[in-house]
Amino acid sequence: MKFEKLGNIIEIRKGKKPCFIDTPNEKSVRVLQIDDLRNDNTLKYTNEQEGVFANTDDVLIAWDGANAGTIGYGKSGFIGSTIALLRKKQPKLYSTSFLGVFLQSQYEYLRSKSTGATIPHISRKALEDLEIPVIDISLQNHIASLLSKAENLIAQRKESICLLDEFLKSTFLEMFGDPVRNEKGWEISSIRNFGSLKNGLNYTKAEKGFSIRCLGVGDFKDLAKITDIDSLQVLNLTTLPNEEYYLKENDLVFVRSNGNKELVGRCVLVFTKSEKVTFSGFCIRYRIEAKGIDPLFLSHLFRVPVFKQSMLKEGKGANIQNINQQILENLKIPIPPIELQTQFAQIVSTTEALKTQYQQSLHELENLYGSLSQKAFKGELSLGSKKMISI
Q: For residue 215, which of 266, 156, 280, 163 has the smallest C-alpha distance?
């Protein structure tokens, strides 16, 4: 298989900053910026007649900034100063879509080779030195179509997962109303009346000792619950913690403090599967010990933005906002009938099961896409004589 350096295939032209207009007319021309590489949601125009004009046959790349390396194609208009167009020197030999999906597969590489201490810039040399297989243009189009189908399926699966999350949020509000305004008139109580709180320990790691799983701030991300205990970090300790510092099934764990304020107050429901798991000193554990509160209801209550904001109003810290046991103990929460909470918990369980299926499907699709693109751009993807591989 023969390969050709990208620099021998395309010429690179950087864009320029345009003068935008609020009301376009028949003489106006579209301006393409970084957001336009992803979608056409916000169209921008200029009446300037000079600039670097991209055709639908050009490949566009974000050259500067946080999104450097983002690729777009099939668009026309003047390009902004943070965009560069890649124009084919021999258009009949190379497919725009093939070059586009190839460069999308090289995103991480281009980012790793970017220059600039604070603002990343694409390295022209790294871009031009990329090697692309030399194959018939009909096969290029075939490969691009195949990868685009896989990419669309991945996007659809991600959207389905997001829709399930939104469904649970809207279902919670529909069933229980705004938890701060409490327009449904539920009984109000403090969470200390239903359970106990415990600060985590600041563990000192040792090279050798007792090994134990530990839930840390880095494990929270945007999860509602943690069931994959094997993904938690393993600590080596000189002595094991007391039994009160082990998590139990259905414990709720909060981020007490963190340099990233977005994480403070975030909580997860923990399913330990009877394994020994502790939690870090930056966390607070809440354990339900009385009837009347369902853990799934409570965990989703703390995911309602207005409720979390009301909790954080009591947070302290000059530079790093934090919450503490007292804030949580005094926090007033609505207490709907346990039957309604249980009904919501059943909806959550059903939805989460479907979400797990979608996530598994997404993982398989991403693996398939990675395998196909790797083989395609190494010249190892055998499509046969005009035989289509279907997805």
A: 280
* This model's pTM is above 0.90: no
Residue 181 lies in a domain: no
Distance, in Å, from the CA atom of 389 to the CA atom of 391, rounded to the nearest integer, reads 7
Structure tokens at 124: 């022209």
197 and 301 in one domain?
yes
> Which of 96, 115, 132 is the last residue before a domain boundary?
132
Q: Are residues 328 and 203 in the same domain?
A: yes
**Boundary-marking domain end, from 132, 153, 170:** 132
3-state secondary structure the chain: CCEEEHHHCEEEEECCCCCEECCCCCCCEEEECHHHHCCCCCCEEECCCCCCEECCCCEEEECECCCCCCEEECCCEEECCCEEEEEECCCCCCCHHHHHHHHHHCHHHHHHCCECCCCCECCHHHHHCCEEECCCHHHHHHHHHHHHHHHHHHHHHHHHHHHHHHHHHHHHHHHHCCCCCCCCCCEEEEHHHCEEEEECECCCCCCCCEEEEEECHHHCCCCCEECCHHHCEEEEECCCCCHHHCCCCCEEEEECECCCCCCCCCEEEECCCCCCEEEECCEEEEEECCCCCCHHHHHHHCCCHHHHHHHHCCCECCCCCECCHHHHHHCEEEECCHHHHHHHHHHHHHHHHHHHHHHHHHHHHHHHHHHHHHHHHCCCCCCCCCCCCCC
Please give the structure tokens belonging to residue 50: 């000079």
Cα separation, 115 vs 307, in Å, equals 43
pLDDT tens digits along 92-122: 999 999 999 999 999 999 999 999 878 899 9
**Domain identity same for 57 and 125:** yes
> Is it the case that residue 337 has pLDDT exceeding 80?
yes
Domain annotation covers residue 358: no
Regarding whether 315 and 193 lie in a shared domain, the answer is: yes
Sign of the alpha-carbon torsion through 98, 157, 387, 384 = positive
